[in-house]
Design brief:
Two copies of one chain form a homodimer. By secondary structure, chain A is of the alpha/beta class. Helices cover 34% and strands 25% of the residues of chain A. In chain A, the strands form two sheets. The first copy, chain A, has a seven-stranded mixed beta sheet, sandwiched between helices. Chain A has a two-stranded antiparallel ribbon with strand order 8-9. In chain A, helix 1 packs across helix 6. The first copy, chain A, is globular.
Chain lengths: 202, 202
């Protein structure tokens, strides 16, 4: 079976991207990262890509008339690669219809909460302010909603007494680094079936 | 230390009530159920109370002018007992200011979801329709909001492929029967401290 070809979308440090790279290196993940796309030219994740000789494409959304033209520019670069799956790894921008239509059911994201609780920015802070005793992370398909796509997998993480946004984020991130690669491997093996909002893992 | 005196509020079969009774019988819970209050004269949970010779008080809300008078009638019966804690066990009615003021931070509820996801009725059905992969149950203080009070403890439960509302409810209920008594025991031992929405377990 050929390897799953991935495009990583990121805006920041790319810690999930790095975890995926390491799982590919240790052969626990049958995938190849074809390229990295960023909306932020200063994203530290771009340096990681360079270290691994992975092509990077950076686009400043504000240089485009609208999201459609921005995403068409991305699509034109992606067309140089045989992409099976777009993996959002801290990509801080809503995906628009142009990309969604070109990659239907082929864009996934990881979010640091047990969705549908605490969508959007600063999910860990939201969780602490609400006072939940369990939080976690969710891998889901991307659709036009904010963090509202069909859920593939969720892992719970205890909130501990005295937790700060930093300590809770760190504990959740540790799980993100494991579960995201696990889900990508399920894709690589063709084990994921989509039935409306119900994701079946074979 | 004297036993924690409890009033159970229920509207239905009272399966959590029964679990609490069994944990008291086996001495894993240092509590005494003083009385059972129901808004439903046909609640099967009332029969369980009779079996155990526990006083029951039934009130039909529609026979009262408003929630205030309904709850004042409840209060007048509760005043016959030294109640430390009101435990809602399938009590399908919002608690109003009259009871909340009389029992501030002394009313708890258990809800079959990982709050704040899936508040209100049919939480398990809501969870299945959304397509979450983790659900569970939440023990929380009751305030004037619907299932929005400060969270004391949460337990996660896997959603499995092919789950129906019935199978998921059953799996969650099994955890409810354990965690609710655990939390009540923490009350009995004075181990719960309330700091706004942040519940500290000593």
């Amino acid at each position: 079976m050929s390897k799953l070809k991935i495009a990583i979308f990121l805006s920041g440090r790319g810690s999930n991207f790095e975890a995926i790279l390491k799982n590919i290196e240790t052969k626990s993940l049958d995938a190849k990262i074809e390229c990295v796309v960023s909306n932020n030219p200063n994203a530290a994740g771009l340096n990681i890509a360079s270290t691994y000789n992975i092509p990077t494409y950076t686009f400043s959304p504000k240089k485009f008339k609208n999201t459609e033209e921005y995403e068409e520019a991305i699509l034109s670069k992606l067309s140089n690669h045989p992409i099976d799956l777009i993996v959002c790894a801290g990509y801080m921008k809503l995906i628009g219809p142009t990309l969604l239509n070109a990659f239907t059911n082929k864009i996934i994201n990881i979010h640091p909460s047990l969705l549908p609780s605490f969508k959007g920015l600063n999910a860990q802070k939201q969780a602490l302010e609400y006072g939940v005793k369990l939080s976690g992370c969710t891998v889901h398909f991307v659709d036009s909603s904010l963090d509202g796509g069909a859920i593939i997998r969720q892992v719970s993480v205890d909130v501990k007494e005295g937790d700060t946004e930093e300590t809770l984020s760190k504990r959740i991130l540790k799980q993100e680094h494991i579960v995201y690669s696990n889900v990508i491997q399920l894709f690589a093996k063709g084990h994921i079936t989509i039935k409306n909002r119900n994701i079946i893992i074979n």
